[in-house]
Design brief:
Elements (H helix, E strand, L loop, with lengths): L46 E5 L7 H6 L4 E5 L5 H6 L8 E9 L22 E4 L2 E2 L2 E6 L1 E8 L6 E5 L5 E6 L2 E9 L2 E3 L4 E7 L5 E6 L17 E13 L19 E10 L2 E2 L11 E4 L3 E8 L5 E5 L4 E6 L11 E2 L1 E4 L4 E6 L11 E4 L3 H5 L3 E7 L15
Parallel strand pairs: 3-7, 6-14, 15-18, 17-25
Antiparallel strand pairs: 1-2, 3-4, 4-5, 7-12, 8-11, 8-13, 9-10, 9-12, 13-14, 15-16, 18-23, 19-22, 19-24, 20-21, 20-23, 24-25
The structure holds copper (II) ion.
């Protein structure tokens, strides 16, 4: 990664399993003119991941200005199921990076309305950097890799005719089985892969509907609706295989094996009443153990919760089992006002008592204002070290 900007930035790879030293968080600033060459072994299932800057206090501005992209992983071990899913990039397997922007008026990339509290809400949607996008569909089924790459806005995706579509993957890869839905919520940073079935000659419009109070209400974009992407089917469509009934093994995190619990209370721009401190390790986690993390939004604003360096499982949403589209691996989970989620979390390998991974709200203004903490992954019995001097920017 070469920084050709005139200011310091970083590159972080959400959802990637890697050493903390390669994670590209706030402890790995890359100064103007500097080149950073991270290296790690990809050892996780196929997934739709992404990358974006993570400089301390500046993440929202850098992401809003366009520093983000997808990082797609394939997995030879999943080749059989991959063959049965739409998998030809740009033909029937399409990245859909959704971001809201503002193109006129003052304060184009400032925090936006003082009322929003969550940061800038654009009035124009872009897909892959394009205004008013459409896609020419040439196959019976098309796979959309959806990424909410917005800094603040939560989307409630669905089609103009309310058709059902299959969610086949969440943040960390394929679900155990396809989940048929007619709407899908994605908060900032969340991804999902969906398969849509088309009829010859028809148009279908992917939209985002009002999110109401759950999305934070009027001042936080809750009453906004957008056309996201038009799908235009050709008069004749090439045959696509049916979506397999079984996609991947279920996540192997068992509640019976939980050895510890932690709770995280989200209020304002704090987690457990604390704001981000680069010199403080908030949590010390033992490698290869399974923990239950309870995240509660005790606030009037929507938040979400993102953890670096691993994929977790949503065990419960407000005490109930999660819907089928959340039955797979996740690294970011939406936590609306008043909600409580229980996560099963395990870190494997890559211990480092000195260099932390981050956990934070992925509404990036909240993150920038302090709604973030630091965890280190250690060997059994090992203690957290001190964050190394000189790593801080
Ligand atoms: Cu938040």
């Amino acid at each position: 990664m070469h920084n050709g900007l005139d200011e310091t930035s970083t590159v972080h790879w959400p959802g990637m399993h890697l050493p903390a030293a390669m994670d590209g968080g706030p402890h790995r600033p890359v100064d103007p003119g500097e080149t950073w060459t991270p290296e790690w072994e990809i050892d996780q299932p196929a997934a739709t991941l992404w990358y974006h800057p993570h400089p301390h206090g500046e993440t929202a501005r850098h992401v809003y200005r366009g520093l983000a992209g997808m990082f797609l992983l394939d997995d030879p071990a999943q080749a059989e199921v991959a063959e049965s899913l739409p998998h030809e990039y740009g033909v029937d397997d399409v990245p859909v990076i959704v971001q809201d922007k503002r193109f006129d008026g003052s304060r184009l990339d400032e925090d936006g309305s003082v009322f929003s509290g969550i940061g800038l809400l654009g009035d124009t949607l872009l897909v892959n950097g394009t205004v008013g996008p459409y896609f020419d569909v040439t196959t019976e089924r098309v796979r959309l890799r959806l990424l909410n790459g917005s800094t603040a806005r939560t989307y409630r995706f669905g089609f103009d005719d309310a058709r059902s579509f299959d969610v086949i993957a969440s943040d960390g890869g394929l679900l155990p089985a396809p989940a048929p839905v007619d709407e899908l919520w994605l908060s900032p940073g969340e991804r999902a892969e969906v398969v849509v079935t088309m009829e010859p000659g028809e148009d279908a419009v992917l939209r985002s509907e009002e999110t109401g109070q759950r999305g934070g209400g009027r001042f936080q974009g809750g009453s906004d609706r957008f056309d996201v992407l038009q799908l235009r089917a050709a008069a004749e469509l090439a045959r696509s295989p049916g979506v397999p009934a079984r996609l991947a093994a279920a996540p192997d995190l068992s509640a019976d094996e939980v050895t510890g619990t932690r709770s995280f209370r989200l209020t304002g721009t704090s987690i457990n009443g604390k704001q981000m401190d680069m010199d403080r390790i908030d949590e010390t986690v033992t490698v290869d153990t399974i923990e239950r993390w309870t995240v509660r939004n005790a606030d009037g604003s929507p938040h979400n919760f993102h953890v670096h360096g691993t994929q977790f499982v949503v065990e419960r949403l407000d005490g109930a089992p999660p819907p089928a589209e959340l039955a797979g691996w996740k690294d970011t989970v939406f936590v609306p006002s008043g909600a409580e989620v229980d996560l099963l979390v395990r870190f494997t390998g890559h211990t480092d008592p000195d260099l932390p991974f981050m956990f934070h709200c992925h509404l990036l203004r909240h993150e920038d204002q302090g709604m973030m903490g630091q965890l280190v992954v250690v060997e059994p019995g090992e203690e957290a070290g001190a964050v190394p001097e000189g790593h801080d920017h």
